[in-house]
Design a protein that fits this description.
Radius of gyration: 17 Å
Distance between the termini: 43 Å
Strand order of the largest sheet: 3-2-1-4-5-6-7
Helix content: 40-55%
Number of strands: 7
Shape: globular
Oligomer: single chain
Structural class: alpha/beta
Order of helices and strands: EHEHEHEHEHEHHE
Largest sheet: 7 strands, parallel
């Protein structure tokens, strides 16, 4: 029997990258509360250990660097075998550069942002989407940003990757078979570690990740193939 057909038929499955902190960590809590099975990954062994302790089986959390294609592919195959294909696949993992003019951004730092924000998303999609297509069901959500639809100085590498997320998702949506959907999602401005890297303590004036997730999770759960190709924003954010 194909791996994607071994999933439980009664509990929906979320696969989420960047699950160990920020928006991803908050979403884990909301989806678990609603009875979903949650599979997540992150680069922090400590963060993954904490998730495993808080949410044991049927949930699953693994240390995976989405910038490493072989690691993503191996993880995906394990997940597809143990849990089946996802009902909802959220590409959340992302990095931001330290604020500075583009010509002062170190080459390695620029590459790291691209490797996670764009290549990482590609690695995850190509590893999970064939099973979703074979099953004929599932939604892919690629986290974009307000900086994927506008720009600000000193975060050019991040802006470039989030604009790319918008284009990648639009093209992907045109390729999907019936029953599936892909959307680019601007989460809004949220008080996270990433925002504090840019704005310092000014980030505190914006909603916390926990508060955000209480609006975002129901919105995400409500996405359907009718939303395919849309560039969406979490309501009220």
């Amino acid at each position: 029997m194909p791996a994607q057909q071994t999933r439980s038929q009664t509990t929906e499955l979320l696969v989420l990258t960047g699950a160990t902190r920020g928006l991803g960590r908050a979403l884990v809590e909301r989806f678990v509360e609603q009875g979903w099975r949650v599979v997540g990954c992150g680069r922090s062994p400590q963060g993954v250990a904490a998730l495993r302790a808080a949410h044991p089986a049927p949930h699953r959390f693994d240390v995976v660097d989405v910038a490493v294609p072989a690691a993503v592919e191996a993880w995906a195959q394990q997940v597809l075998t143990s849990h089946g294909s996802p009902d909802l696949l959220i590409n959340n993992a992302a990095l931001i550069n330290r604020p500075r003019p583009l010509w002062e951004v170190p080459v390695d730092e620029f590459s790291a942002v691209v490797d996670v924000n764009i290549k990482g998303m590609f690695h995850v999609v190509r590893s999970f989407l064939p099973a979703m297509c074979a099953r004929g069901q599932g939604i892919v959500v690629n986290l974009s940003s307000g900086w994927g639809r506008s720009t600000s100085p000193e975060v050019a590498p991040y802006c470039a990757t989030k604009w790319a997320v918008e284009g990648l998702t639009q093209a992907l949506a045109q390729e999907l078979p019936a029953g599936l959907g892909a959307v680019a999602l601007n989460p809004g401005i949220i008080d996270t570690d990433m925002l504090r890297e840019c704005w310092g303590n000014e980030a505190a004036q914006y909603p916390s990740a926990d508060r955000w997730s209480r609006v975002a999770a129901p919105f995400l759960m409500g996405l359907t193939p009718r939303d395919n190709g849309q560039a969406l924003t979490v309501p009220g954010m």
